[in-house]
Amino acid sequence: MAYSEKVLEHFKNPRNVGSLNKDAKNVGTGLVGAPECGDVMRLQIEVDEESGMIRDAKFKTFGCGSAIASSSLATEWLKGKSLDEAASIDNMDIVEELALPPVKIHCSVLAEDAIKAAIEDYRQKNGIQVGHKESVTA
Amino acid sequence: MEKRRLIYLDNNATTPCDPRVVDTMVPYFYEKHGNAASRSHQFGWEAEDAVDYAREQIAKLLNVEDKEVIFTSGATESNNLALKGVFEMYAKKGNHIITAETEHKAILDTCKHLEKAGAEITYLKVQEDGLVNLADLEAAIKPTTILVSLMWANNETGVVQPMQDIAKICEKHGILFHSDATQAVGKIRTHPREIGVHLMSFTAHKMYGPKGVGGLYVSRKNPRVKVTAQMDGGGHERGMRSGTLNVPGIVGFGKAAEIAMNEMDQDAARLSKLRDRLQAELTKLEETKINGNIDSRMPHVTNISFKHVEGEGLMMTFNQNIAVSSGSACTSASLEPSYVLVGMGLGDDLAHSSIRFSLGRFTTDEEIDQAIELVRNGVNHMRDLSPIWEMYQDGVDLTKIEWSAH
Predict the structure, then answer these.
(1) Is B330 a catalytic residue?
(2) Do residue B387 and residue A42 have CB atoms under 8 angstroms apart?
(3) In the prediction, which pLDDT does B336 show?
(4) How far apart are CA B252 and CA B255, in angstroms?
């Protein structure tokens, strides 16, 4: 199966690879997937406490090219967004942007789960309640 | 700019057709286009002679009689014919067949089919090194057992089963022994009569011959084995396999067998050195594991797990330059890792991290040098990206983490 140009580009030049201090109060960490399933994503957000906007985002991913591209793209999209805006990122947006084939849709689902898990972690740390909370576990 | 040739280290999937084989085949497409079953004219006689000669060449390689070689469309058909054909032919004797979990799908799926038709199948577990446990095999035998089917060499790991010992057990209990020798024929010595194998499947395209032609060895004496045909038609191949013979393919298969017979030993010696070097250099990387018994293995294969790196992603770092296979099938919705490696007791995580390297007659020293460098760089790159590599380095016990099922 051939990968799309965009997947290849993100795979070769992944954006925002790395780690943020997971113990910092303004950092939210989402770790989703399992090694046994062939995919693990760790996505982190750093929130500007005054504006409530996501200031920085980092990822590391164990997985195939599509999983790496999905998480790389997610970190790009997260920067500069409010938490609510970030939470509204849908996996199908990633599928569309990267032209993922049907067999790779689970990679985008995992990225969406990682975003939601990172936001949830940040909110829990900071005691923020969300009225209509949806389930965020993968 | 000259484009660098892609390095092909996936010879267990298929081998390139040897140019000497292709040359031999060419006349049989046009000038000598006859049907080997046409008895009334020169074209037919020519084709029949060519098929007879190829059958001799293959029989020599296997050290069997010409008439014991049945031509098929490939090893999948040979496996189907052997298992279904024995099951039907020997139905009065029993319905029990013994095989192993790490066999090729052409065996396993045929067994599943036979189960629906009333067969009882035992799927032996293999040991951690990929070898069948002989005591388990003997313990599985019942009065109703008619066939043991175990592969000569595994496609994913190259592990070679203790054929002689298995054959002895079969002989002791008077049971037929079939072997899927697809990965072994033409690369190591495979003499079924000498070993005590009664039926043996093999194919041309794994031994530098063309695709679409295979063979089934069926012993004609001590014991005289018969299989029920699985296709109805003109009664070709001693009534066991109807269908017009693929004359150019068979001619190429014969030539490939002749070349293999002459060059097998030197190829094996050269390739095992290259394979050992590749394996030694790659396992210098931290946290690697060679899968399968290294003392009973094909000379040109190695299967290595690179821990905390996912196989398909790893392949993507070098697939512009090297062609290999991974034990991680991330292309299916179920994300199933290799059942062969899992069957050997490897965790799903390590199975997802595995790469199979299979060298071939046309692999060069320089290509191995390049492959070593490209794979090492790829592993390092993917580990920089891997959260579980980071955790491992930070001393996190990965088994204690509650992973979210996905």
Answers:
(1) yes
(2) yes
(3) 76
(4) 5
Chain A touched by B316 (CB under 8 Å): yes
Q: What is the ipTM of this complex?
A: 0.87
- Domains for chain B: give ranges and CATH numbers: 19-260 (3.40.640.10), 265-393 (3.90.1150.10)
Compute the average pLDDT of residues B356-375.
97
What is the distance between the alpha carbons of residues A103 and B191, in angstroms, rounded to a whole number? Answer: 43
Q: Is B332 on the interface with A (CB under 8 A)?
A: yes
Q: Tell me if A35 and B337 make a contact (CB, 8 A cut-off).
A: no
User: What are the structure tokens assigned to B393, written together?
Assistant: 């380095």
The CATH number assigned to the domain holding A31 equals 3.90.1010.10
Q: Write the pLDDT tens digit of every residue in A8-27.
A: 999 999 999 999 999 999 99
Instruction: Quote the strand ranges of chain A, DSSP E.
Output: 27-34, 39-47, 54-62
Residue B316: list chain A partners with CB under 8 A. 3, 11, 64-65
Neighbours of B362 (CB within 10 A): 13
pTM: 0.92
Q: Which of A69, A95, A138, A35 shows the shortest CA–CA distance to B337?
A: A35
Judged by a CB distance cut-off of 8 A, whether residue B389 touches chain A is yes
Answer yes or no: do B406 and A17 touch at CB < 8 A.
no
Q: Kindly give, in sequence order, each residue whose CB lies less than 8 Å from that of residue B294, ignoring residues fewer than 6 positions away.
A: none
